[in-house]
Amino acid sequence: MSLFVEDEDQGPRPLASVQSQASITVPIQSGEIGVEFHQPEIVPVYPERTISCTLPLKYQQEIIEDMLTKDGLLILGRGLGWDVISANLLHALSSSCVTLQHGDGAPIEKRSLIFVLNITEDEVSRIRESLVELHWLDESMDDEEEPQFVEISSESHNTSSKRKDTYLKGGIISITARVLVVDLLSGLLSPNDITGLYVLHAERIKETSSDAFVISIYRDTNDWGFVKAISDEPESITGFTPLATTLKMLRVPNAFLWPRFRLEVSQCLNYIDKGILNRVREEILKRRSVTEINTKFTYKMTKIQSAILSCIQACLQELKRHNSDLATEYWDMENAHDPHFVRRIRMSVNSQWHRLTYTSRQLVYDLGVLTDMLNYLVSMDSVSFYQMVQGIVDLNIRHARSGGMNASMSPWLNLDDSNTIIAFSRDRALGKISVEKRRQEVIDVEDNQENPSETADVEVTEEYLLEELPKWEQLGLLLDDILHEKAVSNVKNQGPILIMCSNPHSVEQLGYLLKDMKAEVNRMTGKRRFSSRKYMVQKLKGYLAWKEVSSLVKKINTELDAAPEEGSKTPEADELHTSKTFTRNGQPVSSRRRARGASASARVSKLYSGSNSEKNTEAAEVDATILKNLQAAEDEEEIDDERVTAPNELEEMANSFLMPEFADNGEWGIHLKFDHVNKEDQIIIQSYNERNNDALLQEISPSYIVMYEPNLSFTRRVEIYQEINKDNPAKAYLMYYGTSVEEEKHLLGIKKEKESFSRLIREKASLSKHFETADDNYKFHLNKNRVLNTRIAGGANFRTENDELRVIVDVREFRSSLPNLLYRSGIKVIPCMITVGDYIVSPKICVERKSIPDLVSSFKSGRLYQQCEQMFRHYELPTLLIEFDENKSFSLEPFSESRFQKINPTNPIADQSIRQNIQSKIVLLLLSFPKLKIIWSSSPYETAQIFVQLKANQEEPDVGEALDKGVNRAVVTEDGGPPVFNDDPIDFIQNIPGINAANYHLIVQKVQSIEKLVELSKEQFLEILGLENGRKAYNFINKTIS
């Protein structure tokens, strides 16, 4: 007999197949496997109704069908219409009631209650509008009540009674996960009253997040409701078996993957009716296609980009050399164009940050500076870019010359490529060019007349280059062609021109450019071009203002550092230790010097030494004569006498319009004149918004779409818009810099999305079938046998591992992940608004939890001292829990980094000083409270284990006693609960003589604010505080100081 091959005398065995998600029982008897099905105890039955949907594309309709029939996670490609799918799905699920069938028992009817989690305010507005439109279209809802879509916020639903009334009304509710967790755990809302959960941005769900906490509580009790989730960022779903992990956290069995390259999506977006004529087909294809405008960098921009990439590569290689054990495959130049490149490198070294050398930390910061510089190259004008580069150099030089604990420059400034960046940035903006009578060669289009007297003079003058971005001229030419095409077109009721940019700064920039752009024609070639010289002159004025402020700052710093300390040596830890990549002339940059900061000063002097001796560390000066000539030329070209407002004066001008002064006769001092602009003449400039771009296209219905910068999501939105409006599609144009970081970033985004979907598709193919039973439990129970003492000796209370453990948690602590982990550890979490402590472990143990930033801020404000006083007044074993982040190093050092600027990390000596400062404050706290217990926890997971250990042989806490401690029952809130005090005003009034910790609650109860307090009469003080304390408080407040 073989264990794997059947004997010949054995017949074929019947196969057991499972066609539903019902629970199963598999008994094993005498070599035969039988399957027994158990139908779900509760089956939800939704009323039959006809639903109208606004899903114009076929693939969207198929997605809705899949999501309605099964619970699951929908992963969409970017820009494929997550908002319209979500709105239609919620509309289909939002029946007024649902009937629960309990086997053969009588059915129970419940009001439908759906919660939408992880949604922003803008998304709430967008989905609410879509739901209203769907309700108007749905004829079957005429005789029924309109389903509500309510947003629960801290302003509108600040009490539990208001939230309870909202829950009873049912409908679709948008709520934060933290508030919903508290209401579920406190019993204000039962999980069985919830019809379903709809989770947006499922890629953000983590094991310890509040959204996962809500799903766990909901699914532990409610097994008949639905859970549906959606995500449009597949590249964010990463890790080991990312799809299976995400499905486990969401407690859903199915995954629906819809990338752009899926056959159904491609056929839908590229569909053209075969019955139309070939000529019409070609015209439609021509209009639906995107015209790419490949713009080339100027020579100087190309050199700067190449130098920046070389600096990034050098820093990356040096970082890998110093941290070979931490380096991963991601640390490669291929990923340098990833928007999250530096953040992911920082995350990979966070756990060992306290062990990294000062050089490694500086390199991480330098990577962030260089990648930002690379992005600014394609969007900033030449003057602003040079101003930014010069600001970085000045800041490094100031740090290096300070002679303090941060006396080290960034390593990339010691590279030859750094001189290339600085020199070409200066030449782009303030490089001088000789011009031979520019007006002889270039004439104004608006004033196309020659002046013979002027052509006779040939004068050579100097001007600043003030290099313009190449895209500006191409945009002017494109808009000129579009306006000409619209003028000669016979099509009526055309839409506006829509220009899309990557950020609001580009929107503001283009707004000024299109207003000041000047059309010119070259007399020699006859070519038409557009100049933005006026805009660049305004930027040059802004540079002069910045230079003046920078000079004042440098002068102040020089005066402060005029008398450095003598006779002290800089420790070796202050030096940057790098390889020969960052050295010049064969001299290592880490050579030690006797004087403080001497080596750094030497590197500063070398920055512009050698072959580049003409360079200096100062920002470039502006020639007064050239500036005067530029101003005179600008004045001559102005048609009106009205001065053009500079870009940096936009906010000031807007404020003057918003707050006009009143005239003497009571009328407005400023009158605004509005002119009507026809829709076809409008040019609308907007920034990319992945959540509202689809609504923008549908609302304004543009005839021409110009994508000033590439954006994958918006490109897909345009494809959908073209398919919906196939009879009259808009003309789309895409502008980008060829062979540049902009093009590489766009291509990398497409590549990463495709790779992410391919990885998820392969994982989905190998996913095993998932079944659940009532005995399954997603909680990771700790081994209580190793923690709890079950001995009865000595009269101890006997405790078994099945006994319920309870912890009272302050509701403000649900912002952290610890309550979630306590619940998943098998501990019952009871949320309360307690005054003393954060966690009540037992009647004797009170725990105040502090993260590292909270700890330092509490030391600074003195609040921790008061909290310890309260805990010692009411509990026998007060405990301070200092909890670290599990993703960061178990050290006080990472906090010190946040106190300094991004350009430089803190020096090891500075780190040590800051750590000693925190440690000394902890020692002083222990001197004040010798019996205070301190718990150092490396992560919330470790804290959960410690709490179980603390509860060994301890009684369970009482909720009533925890609420009474530290609370004056005479003061209550609207819902009858304990008040939440504002600690800062309370600390302030206790400094007034006569007001102390024993009677401040009388002031809080009877006086609304500090302003009202100082207005009280002497009799009122005596009535509230008594004779002696009232007299002291009144005399202190009303004392006159001569």
Q: Roughly what percent helix? A: 40-55%
Number of helix segments?
A: 37
Rg, Cα atoms, Å: 35 Å
Could you name the CATH homologous superfamily of the domain at 46-268? Answer: P-loop containing nucleotide triphosphate hydrolases
Widest β-sheet, arrangement of strands = 10-11-9-12-13-6-14
Uncertain spans: 1-31, 438-456, 565-574, 585-616, 639-670, 896-903
Question: How many beta strands in the DSSP annotation?
Answer: 30
Give an account of the 3D structure.
The chain has 1042 residues and is of the alpha/beta class. Among the domains are: 46-268, Rossmann fold (3-Layer(aba) Sandwich), CATH 3.40.50; 299-430 and 541-575 and 595-612, no CATH class; 784-964, 3-Layer(aba) Sandwich (Rossmann fold), CATH 3.40.50.10130; 983-1037, Orthogonal Bundle (DNA polymerase, domain 1), CATH 1.10.150.20. It is 43% helix and 13% strand. The chain is built from 37 helices and 30 strands. A 7-stranded parallel sheet has the order 10-11-9-12-13-6-14, sandwiched between helices. A 6-stranded mixed sheet has the order 26-25-27-28-29-30. A 5-stranded parallel sheet has the order 15-24-23-19-22, sandwiched between helices. Helix 6 links the parallel strand 12 and strand 13 (226-231). The longest helix has 28 residues, at 533-560. The model is unreliable at 1-31, 438-456, 565-574, 585-616, 639-670 and 896-903 (pLDDT under 50).
